[in-house]
TrEMBL record, chain B:
The keyword Cell wall biogenesis/degradation does not apply. It comes from Azospirillum cavernae. It holds the Pfam family Peripla_BP_6. Transmembrane segments: none annotated. Belongs to the leucine-binding protein family. The keyword Zinc-finger does not apply. InterPro entries: BCAA_transport, Leu-bd, Peripla_BP_I. Residues 35-372 form the Leucine-binding protein domain. Gene3D superfamilies: 3.40.50.2300. Residues 1-27 form the signal peptide. This is ABC transporter substrate-binding protein. Keywords: Amino-acid transport, Signal, Transport. GO terms for biological process: amino acid transport.
Length: 296, 409
């Protein structure tokens, strides 16, 4: 047997770090959506957790009601959640852009409560089982741990989505329009670009990311009305630590905090659900704009 | 700036959320001219499906048997959500008793909340009928002259599942424990029982209540090499840990077995048989055991759309016994009714010749069950094969063993 690191066998440590990375993938996907929405719309989207839950429920409904499997759900569920987002933005959110952030936050929080309440009323809280797709069952024995294939897939999928979103916003022409529209919407509109439509589509894209995370989560967790609220507060902490509106910050912090949480579970499991908030408090004291944010 | 705003807002939102749900506690006119039953439990969180509205439905079914009237006066049933928070639970209990004229509090899953409510009802000399909470302390060092522990407790679970698994060769144990009163007690009671049967403890890990990812705890359990990985948790936590244990291939090697120390039929229903199959569990009630239980459960199903858990069936039994005691005593003040309840045997579809000890423990038979394989099940809710009946005297501690000080009187 090899030695130990701080009294923990290295196998256990590697295992926990890998698990941290998996959880970090969800944090990254969700905080990415939040960061995109906040960066472009200046809306603190409290309904994000509810929409993530909705993504999981849509894929569950697709499977049980229509026999549509996981791979199609991966495409359809985010689209359905995105459409819901369009409706939400057009009918409600768009009326609040001129007001303080706080109104958007309260509105989306109210929406979250209603969406969750409706699903809770319809489906109870114990949740519904969603099977792991055939192709991703089983796992690999890595020597230090048994890695279920599905969890490996989650890390890969989330990395692909995060990187391509970052490229789309930072490196493409469309992304440049978007960034310009947040800086000076009037000027961009004067160049003949339909800014309100762009804003709507950005919101739809952000919540579709939440929906996608929901589909990815469905086979791991129970598909339950509470799954969003269990996660959303941590994700907000991630966004705050990373810096509001910073896309790179949200993604890196997502993975980083996942890893750190994994470590906490080895050394002091009782603290595992507060470690993120302790870090948030420290970061806010030292660098109020977040690790990657800029002061406005 | 925005970051600060957001962090503050997040906290505010949490508080608002809590306040909103707390406000739903119903409060209606107060009158001594009725028996008012308060069903207090988790109605929206991870324990809502094992008790929740179902416990209120069961209590109503008991009241209906009396024609919703007792000694010529109406029976009223109110409900509230304690959100698994002891302070909210005891505040509702206090308000119910002091202002709303509630005579008896029913259910209260979550041992932490039940221990807090027990303090209130002991103080105010009101009857407290506990079906949801598990910790054996409620009829042990925290017992009350007017508190009744009805459906099951950690001691019975330990005796049932703990002993059976050791006898089958599972002699080394690792615990995954919910980090609060209930989990600690279940772990302690089971560990004692495992040691008594000749097994040994390899380790334990404590997880926070309402955890969504158990993988790292499961990994620790896996590397411990223990033959039995015991889940000292309940409700949503048990469901998630069993599901993820199957994902991580915990039982695939054949070297390790999973023991759900507290598993409700609602959990099995949520998991599905393909994941839950072959789990061994201890329960105080299974709907498909005899005609009487089937008939009652069918009625419950028609009203509620789900088969009853042992908590819900126990709520019916406890409320029914309580009403019978009032009928016999002719009054509804706590200590008198409590004495009457302890005098009378409990005979209904839930318990045969159930006996209530001086410490408030209702002693009845418990059952060791195995979850059926999908191929053995005839359809939804056909989930358990009963392996053994555990006689009440074996399942529950005696008054002396319980450590309840009331016994001295």
């Amino acid at each position: 047997m090899m030695g130990t690191i701080f009294g923990i066998p290295p196998q256990a440590l590697f295992g926990q770090l890998l698990l941290g990375l998996i959880n970090g993938s969800f944090y990254a996907l969700l905080s990415l959506g939040l960061a995109v929405i906040f960066g472009m719309l200046n809306v603190i989207n409290f309904a994000h957790g509810a929409l993530y839950m909705m993504g999981a429920f849509v894929s569950w409904l697709l499977l049980t009601q229509f026999g549509i499997g996981y791979w199609w759900a991966l495409l359809l569920a985010p689209m359905i959640v995105g459409l819901f987002g369009v409706a939400l933005e057009k009918t409600l959110l768009s009326r609040l852009y001129k007001l303080d952030h706080l109104y958007g936050l309260l509105l989306t929080f109210g929406c979250a409560l209603m969406i969750e309440g409706a699903f809770r009323h319809l489906y109870g809280v114990s949740g519904q089982p969603y099977p792991i797709p055939e192709a991703l069952r089983g796992g690999q024995n890595l020597g230090f741990m048994f890695l279920p294939n599905y969890r490996g897939w989650v890390v890969v999928a989330s990395l692909i989505v995060c990187i391509s979103t970052w490229i789309a916003i930072e490196k493409t022409k469309l992304g440049a329009y978007l960034r310009a529209a947040t800086e000076n919407p009037v000027l961009v509109q004067a160049f003949g670009i339909n800014v309100p439509r762009m804003v709507t589509l950005t919101y739809a894209f952000g919540v579709a990311l939440a929906g996608l995370a929901g589909v990815l989560a469905a086979p791991i967790y129970q598909v339950s009305p509470l799954m969003g609220s269990n996660l959303i507060i941590v994700v907000f902490a991630v966004v705050v630590i990373g810096g509001m509106g910073s896309i790179l910050g949200a993604v890196l912090t997502g993975y980083g905090l996942g890893l750190l949480e994994g470590l906490t579970k080895v050394f002091y499991p009782e603290a595992s659900n507060i470690v993120v908030f302790v870090i948030m408090a420290v970061v806010l004291m030292i660098k109020p704009a977040g690790l990657f944010g800029r002061e406005r | 700036m925005n970051a600060r705003l957001l962090a503050g807002a997040a906290l505010t939102a949490l508080t608002i959320g809590a306040a909103l749900t707390a406000g739903s506690a119903s409060a209606q006119g107060l009158s001594g001219d009725m028996v008012k039953i308060g069903v207090l439990n988790d109605r929206s969180g991870l324990y809502a499906d094992l008790g929740g509205e179902g416990s209120a439905v069961a209590a109503r079914m008991a009241a209906e048997e009396f024609g919703n009237k007792i000694l010529g006066k109406p029976i009223q049933i109110v409900t509230a959500d304690h959100q698994n928070k002891p302070d909210i639970g005891s505040n509702i209990a206090r308000q119910w008793i002091d202002q709303d004229g509630v005579d008896v509090i029913v259910d209260v899953p979550n041992s932490g909340v039940a221990l807090a409510v027990q303090e209130v009802t002991r103080d105010k000399k009101k009857i407290f009928l506990m079906e949801g909470p598990a910790t054996s302390r409620l009829s042990g060092d925290a017992c009350s002259p007017t508190g009744f522990h009805w459906a099951y407790d950690t001691h019975a679970l330990a005796v049932g599942t703990g002993r059976a698994m050791v006898q089958e060769g599972g002699d080394s144990w690792y615990f995954l424990t919910a980090d609060y009163a209930f989990g600690h007690q279940l772990e302690a009671d089971t560990a004692a029982e495992v040691k008594k049967a000749g097994g040994k403890l390899v380790g334990a890990v404590r997880h926070p209540l309402n955890t969504s990812d158990f993988s790292s705890f499961l990994l620790q359990a896996q590397s411990s090499g223990a033959k039995i990985v015991a889940l000292a948790n309940a409700g949503g936590d048990t469901i998630t840990s069993i599901k993820q244990a199957s994902e991580f291939g915990l039982t695939q090697s054949g070297k390790q077995k999973l023991a759900g120390l507290l598993l409700f039929i609602s959990d099995v229903h949520a998991l599905g048989l393909s994941v839950a199959q072959d789990l061994v569990l201890t329960t105080g009630f299974y709907w498909d055991m005899d005609d009487e239980k089937r008939a009652w459960s069918k009625k419950f199903f028609d009203k509620f759309g789900k088969m009853p858990t042992m908590v819900q069936a126990g709520s019916y039994s406890a409320v029914r016994h309580y009403l019978k005691a009032i009928e016999a005593a002719g009054v509804d003040d706590g200590p008198t009714v409590a004495a009457k309840m302890k005098e009378m045997p409990v005979n209904d579809m839930f318990a045969k010749n159930g006996k209530i000890l001086a410490n408030g423990r209702m002693v009845h038979d418990m059952y060791l069950a195995r979850v059926k394989k999908p191929s053995e099940s005839k359809g939804p809710w056909d989930y358990y094969q009963i392996l053994r009946t555990i006689p009440g005297a074996e399942a529950f501690a005696t008054v002396e063993e319980s450590g309840c000080k009331l016994a001295a009187k």
